[in-house]
Design brief:
The complex is a heterotrimer of chains A (about 190), B (about 200) and C (about 300). Chain A has eight helices and one strand; from the N terminus they run E-H-H-H-H-H-H-H-H. With about 200 residues, chain B is mainly α. Classes of the chains: A mainly alpha (about 190), B mainly alpha (about 200), C mainly beta (about 300). At the B-C interface, helix 1, helix 3, helix 6, helix 8 and helix 9 of B face strand 22 of C. Strand 1 of chain A pairs antiparallel with strand 1 of chain B, so a sheet runs across the interface.
């Protein structure tokens, strides 16, 4: 089943972050679940676009919220919760990727290529590749920078810091991503 | 002097507003009269708009809360939840504490110590950087070379800063200290190469 | 060296006088040179393509950019200097640049210079030097030595050469076929190397990644220094080498056995010194936060 853009069901108004965060910080799981419901779509969108695979994205979303629960005591409201949560999610995804790469290398025979993290092909035959799928098919480094910069709006300097790369490297990945996307979407 | 190839290479930077006013004017002027660049710029703009328009939220196919709840630790435990995740660099925090403790005992292990070697390297680095900055300030470099020089310098700055901080922490480990000074020296060499090459442009 | 009788005649190719006649002027020139002459080409923008042939002649074909003043050709015999000359003013706004396509004797050496020029060289046996800023550079064949300086172009050296040296800032580097001595200095580009047997290897980068597949010679002297990029070395399983590896905060994955140990109780960093097989080759690796992978082929 494909992930859905968030519709707007007729739900009762929920308490917002300002009320929920202190309660969750104090150990109130109900409050944390409410936070999860509020922000899962956002966190999941980020994970999915960064990793390109729905199953992996689901696992990473869970990892992100688990880490958020653990780190919540350290969040003192210096930014919006979503900003904090967003950055935490990026770190979860990138940490996971580093760990996966290390493990993959020990399991492979020499000469085999690492499997690409590509989403399933769109099931409408002859359909033009849409932007979402094209992004998912980008090589990992280029995809990460593109998603963080062009989709999520981080500045290049921030992207470089998050990914632990130089700004020059981030820039060339960004340009590469844009070029590849334009070739595929033309 | 702005060639087509240069302007073409700088279109992304133009779009992202990363060019100096002079370079911006030059690239924009070129693009105005070049159908290839104008088309590319338009395509890049549309791509960026499409990317920014992607839905902010994508709900997962099924509810992930049960899986999360199961991992949140003992619900009956009082107070703040325990951290089960191994942080990436716990040792360094402990380390820093250890170094400070030792510094109190042995003043020669004080962090931020500048030895004759690091002082010499610091001076060498400052010199190369000044040359690079001067070259950029003169404004005679082609925009692409200037952009690359700036990016290259910033990348090397970052590496030098980290190396320099690490050197402060390894004052008590001569082997590690020696290796890091060698690394520092190699970064300075790299920067020297980059600046010299830009100067010859 | 055979000195050609017709030496040192400067030839100047003039464009039509009126600037309004600007168009791209075709080039078709030939000069006699020695079989091992040094050919220098200076083309600010456009492309330089050089292919070796059997004649003791340099043939220059192509097109001059509209904004160029002239194509200057100097020399003969043991050297030939070719330069696209532009008027000395700022904001020239060169569009395509000049296309220079050369045939030169196989035994020649080349010195190429450009800013935004693509370079392609095939089938030369001399020394090839190239210095550009943003063009792509491709070298193919069996040159005696290759020395490339680039800033952001892609560099591809597919050459069986005993001495390859590449400097770049952010361009991507690909090397195939190098042997004996290889040196790469890089700030943030990536490098992909498949080489033969290397006695000397120097790799110095800030954040570029290196993927290297090569064999250390018995008396090899390899030094790799990378700040935050990843180093992946694919080495023969039965190799004889002494490793000296230093990581500040990066991780080591080692197919050849031991793990890295903390250097000291009082300082961060890990090191590992070990011998694979009977030892002999020397491999020194230093990274700051980059990971290192030693992979068995």
């Amino acid at each position: 089943m494909q992930p859905q853009p968030l519709a707007s069901p007729a739900a009762p108004p929920a308490p917002d972050d300002a009320l929920l965060v202190p309660r969750a910080r104090a150990g109130d799981r109900g409050a944390f679940e409410a936070l999860y419901r509020r922000h899962a779509g956002r966190v999941h969108a980020l994970c999915l676009r960064l990793c390109g695979d729905p199953q992996e994205a689901a696992g990473l979303t869970q990892d992100a919220f688990v880490r958020a629960w653990e780190r919540l005591p350290g969040f003192r409201g210096e930014s919006l919760l979503l900003t904090w949560l967003h950055r935490l999610t990026v770190n979860v995804v990138l940490d996971h990727r580093r760990a996966v790469r290390r493990r993959a290398l020990t399991e492979l025979d020499a000469g085999m290529d690492l499997p690409a993290l590509a989403p399933a092909a769109p099931d409408r035959p002859g359909a033009r590749l849409d932007l979402e799928s094209a992004v998912g098919a980008l090589p990992a480094g280029a995809r990460t920078v593109f998603v963080l910069h062009d989709v999520e709006g981080y500045r290049l300097r921030e992207v470089a810091d998050l990914c632990g790369i130089a700004e020059g490297t981030a820039k060339s990945q960004l340009h590469r991503a844009r070029r590849l996307l334009r070739e595929v979407l033309a | 002097m702005m060639t087509h190839q240069e302007a073409h290479a700088l279109l992304n930077d133009l779009l992202d507003d990363r060019l100096t006013p002079d370079a911006r004017a030059a690239v924009a002027a070129h693009a105005a009269g070049c159908s290839v660049c104008a088309a590319e710029l338009d395509g890049l703009r549309r791509l960026r708009e499409a990317a920014a328009d992607l839905p902010a939220e994508l709900r997962p196919a099924h509810d992930l809360w049960p899986g999360i709840a199961a991992r949140l630790g003992d619900p009956d435990a009082a107070g703040a939840p325990r951290s089960a995740v191994r942080h990436r660099r716990p040792r360094l925090t402990l380390l820093a504490a250890a170094v400070v403790a030792l510094a109190l005992l042995a003043p020669w292990l004080r962090p931020d110590r500048t030895t004759p070697e690091t002082a010499a390297l610091d001076a060498g680095y400052a010199q190369v950087r000044r040359d690079g900055e001067r070259l950029l300030a003169e404004g005679g470099l082609p925009p692409l070379a200037a952009a690359e020089l700036r990016d290259g310098m910033s990348a090397i700055d970052g590496a030098v800063r980290e190396t320099r901080q690490a050197l402060d922490r390894t004052a008590g480990a001569p082997d590690q200290f020696r290796r890091l000074t060698a690394c520092y020296r190699r970064k300075i060499d790299l920067l020297r190469q980059v600046v010299d090459r830009a100067a010859r442009t | 060296m055979n000195r050609n009788a017709t030496l040192a005649i400067a030839t100047v190719l003039l464009l039509a006088a009126a600037p309004a006649l600007a168009g791209r002027t075709p080039i078709d020139e030939t000069r006699k040179v020695d079989g091992d002459a040094v050919v220098r080409v200076d083309n600010l923008a456009g492309s330089i393509t050089v292919t070796g042939w059997d004649k003791n002649e340099v043939q220059i074909r192509g097109e001059l950019d509209e904004k160029a003043d002239e194509l200057r050709i100097d020399g003969g015999g043991d050297h030939l200097d070719i330069e696209v000359v532009y008027p000395k003013k700022k904001n020239l706004n060169i569009r395509e640049g000049s296309v220079l396509t050369l045939r030169v004797p196989h035994g020649c050496s080349l010195e190429l210079q450009g800013v935004s020029s693509d370079v392609e060289v095939r089938d030369l046996r001399g020394t090839i030097q190239s210095s550009t800023v943003s063009g792509d550079v491709q070298i193919h064949g069996k040159p005696a030595a290759v020395k490339i300086a680039s800033v952001s172009g892609e560099v591809t050296v597919e050459a069986e050469s005993d001495e390859v040296s590449i400097e770049s800032v952010s361009g991507r580097i690909e090397v195939r076929g190098a042997r004996r001595s290889l040196e790469i200095n890089l700030v943030s580009g990536d490098a992909d190397v498949q080489a033969g047997e290397l006695e000397r290897l120097r790799f110095n980068a800030v954040s570029g990644d290196l993927d290297l597949r090569a064999d250390p010679a018995r008396n090899a002297d390899w030094e790799l220094d990378c700040h935050s990029g990843e180093l992946t070395l694919e080495l023969p399983g039965g190799l004889d080498a002494d490793f000296d590896i230093n990581l500040f905060s990066g991780d080591l994955h080692n197919d050849f056995g031991p793990k890295a140990e903390r250097t000291s109780k009082f300082a961060p960093g890990k090191e590992l010194r070990f011998t694979a097989g009977k030892g002999g080759a020397r491999v020194e690796i230093n990274t700051f936060s980059g990971d290192v992978r030693l992979v068995k082929r």
